[in-house]
């Protein structure tokens, strides 16, 4: 089981590293001129890695749920928190990847509304993803992008709710532990008081036993003197 747990963490670290790599490629793509070969190639590479990221995240979540009975509650919640971090990173990746493309779509939509399919009077470079699309198709593409953003927000909301529940559970556990600690302190105080009381009793008994011993010795000496005095002398 230790090997399975270690392999899960190794896969998680790899997925986290992959997320950073995707963000770097998206940043590189955004630095390239629109419609350039470098930008198109970077977008394709980013899409491929994003698909791999989604698959890895799904695999991690399935493995975690399957091994729930083999983990402690605290460890399972900790790993759920790690999965939530991956989901938040996915939302950030999707937003970063779509931000530039959506900007191009809005520009294309503006040109379409002004009836400038063939002539761009604003001298704005139109994104190739919308260049050959009609006005209705561009609107549908924008609706799809907004829908994807809503899905990302829903995922983020679920993550926040789960984190809230985890925080509440941790708060309840801390309260319970504090109550246990208070009980232990109370018991320790009671034990200390009883120990002090018993120590005093022992001291009193010790003093009394010492005095009693002295009286016994004195009585024995008196008896010895009387006996000796009663013995006739020649």
From TrEMBL:
Coiled coil: none
The T-SNARE coiled-coil homology domain, residue ranges: 143-205
Lineage, opening ranks: Eukaryota, Metazoa, Ecdysozoa, Arthropoda, Chelicerata
Native source organism of the sequence: Araneus ventricosus
Matches recorded under Pfam families: SNARE
Keyword Transcription set for record: no
Keywords: Membrane, Transmembrane, Transmembrane helix
Protein name per the record: Syntaxin-8
Alphabetical list of InterPro entries matching this protein: Syntaxin-8_SNARE, T_SNARE_dom
Residue ranges crossing the lipid bilayer per the database entry: 213-231
């Amino acid at each position: 089981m230790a090997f399975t747990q270690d392999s899960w963490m190794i896969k998680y670290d790899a997925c986290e590293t992959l997320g950073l790599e995707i963000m770097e490629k998206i940043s590189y793509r955004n630095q390239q001129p629109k419609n350039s070969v470098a930008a198109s190639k970077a977008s394709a590479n980013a899409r491929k890695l994003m698909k791999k990221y989604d698959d890895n995240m799904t695999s991690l979540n399935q493995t975690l749920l399957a091994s729930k009975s083999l983990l402690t509650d605290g460890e399972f919640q900790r790993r759920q928190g790690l999965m939530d971090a991956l989901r938040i990173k996915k939302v950030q990746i999707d937003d970063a990847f779509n931000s530039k493309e959506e900007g191009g779509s809005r520009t294309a939509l503006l040109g379409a509304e002004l009836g400038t399919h063939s002539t761009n009077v604003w001298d704005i470079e139109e994104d190739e993803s919308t260049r050959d699309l009609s006005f209705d198709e561009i609107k549908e593409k924008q609706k799809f992008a907004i829908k994807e953003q809503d899905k990302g927000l829903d995922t983020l909301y679920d993550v926040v709710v789960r984190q809230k529940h985890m925080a509440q559970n941790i708060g309840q556990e801390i309260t319970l532990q504090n109550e246990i600690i208070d009980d232990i302190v109370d018991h320790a105080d009671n034990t200390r008081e009883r120990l002090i009381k018993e120590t005093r009793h022992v001291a009193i008994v010790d003093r009394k036993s010492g005095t009693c011993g002295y009286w016994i010795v004195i009585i024995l000496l008196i008896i010895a003197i009387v006996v000796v005095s009663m013995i006739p002398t020649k």
